[in-house]
User: Fold this.
Amino acid sequence: MKEWFKYKYGFVNVDAENLYFTNTGNWSEIEGLEEKGIQKQNTFRQFRMKFIPFILIVIAVFLFIFQFEHTKIKFSLIFGILVLAFTAYKYLKREIGEKFTLPISKIENIILRGETATVTFRDGEGKSTEQLVENLDQKGISLLEELIEKTL
Assistant:
């Protein structure tokens, strides 16, 4: 069984032994992934992905406060920067998500509520950890329900 589904920050690939949280859903991306708690934390990458849209919004606010003589130019520039910030966030949103392997055998509980799932599991260090999986598509909901029936 090799399946995948989409969620808010990327994709979850599923095989008989593991869940793989990835950015693209490409099976080649799972090579080298480690369990959560063992893998290197790339907090700078996540910070950078959130920082770019934030800076664009700050620039727009600064331009709004700073008075241009031509009002049309000012509002066009502010609107353009806000659209750019929104577009950058939408484009970079997949890069914000974490990338790790989750062995199915370490899953303690999966709670489904609408399009959101909370997965409780033991990470690579043996600590109980929760992963919130939001904005699940219908395929993801079905796969998680199937996983609940088989393993829990």
Notes: Helices lie at 43-65, 71-96, 138-151.
